[in-house]
Structure formats: C-alpha cells, structure tokens
Amino acid sequence: MSQNNENQQGLSVDFGDELSKNLTIHKNVKQEIIITTADKIKLVLINTREILTAQRDWWTPFGLLISFITTLCTAEFKDAFGLTKEFWHAIFVLLTLGSAIWLLKSFYKLYENRGKDNLDNIIENIKLRSENASENESTNT
Length: 141
What we know:
Layout: H1 2-10, H2 15-21, H3 38-54, H4 59-74, H5 85-112, H6 119-140
Helix pairs in contact: 3-6, 4-5
C-alpha cells in the first residue's frame, strides 16, 4: 500500500505553470450604480407597462371592426325584440364607427410609444428619474 502512495505522489504535474503560460486575462469590472427609491422604480415600471400594453391594445378594436363591417355587408336586418330593422342597422353602423375610432386611438398610442420599450430606454428613464430627484433634493436644501 505504501508503494501505491509513493507512485501516486511521484506523478504529480503542476498545471498552474502550464495554464499561466497560455493564459490571457481580460478585466472588465467597470460598473455603473444607480441609487433610487422604490416609488421611482414603480413609476418607471408603470410607464413601461403602459408602453408594452399599447403594443397589443389594437387587437380588440381591429377584431370588432372586422366583425361589424362583415355584419353590415352580409346581414339582412329584421325587426326583432321590438326594434325595427333600421334601428338595428343604425346600431351596427354606430358600433362600426366606435370601433374605428377606438382602433385609430390605439394606433396613435402605438405610434407615440414606438421605440420606448427597449431595456436601454427603461434604464435611462430610471437614471433620469434618479438624477431629477437628486437635483430636486439639492435645490431644496
């Protein structure tokens, strides 16, 4: 048994020297720290949520508009539930107009918020809110 231990000790290789000969170390430890409060982060996140929901808010009015236009093009309105066929036609025309206005407002909101949903923009908003808060504090004192 002692011979096995001696043999194992005699075969040691120093990997440290071999690795250090061919090793290149790159340092990238520059950091940027943002100090802010929870309420300021909440404001940025609420704004970001509104921007992200604006990207899909147009789906509902678009679907309704297509449905109402299809109904107006294909349906023969009849008197039903005590209402005349002209009244039913007028209701669907108003619903179509309402959906079109809703869709246009959704597209406008989408256009206003274009490019504001990337992470760099969100981080810049956090920085700006932090800088504005520190400027306000320094002017108050």
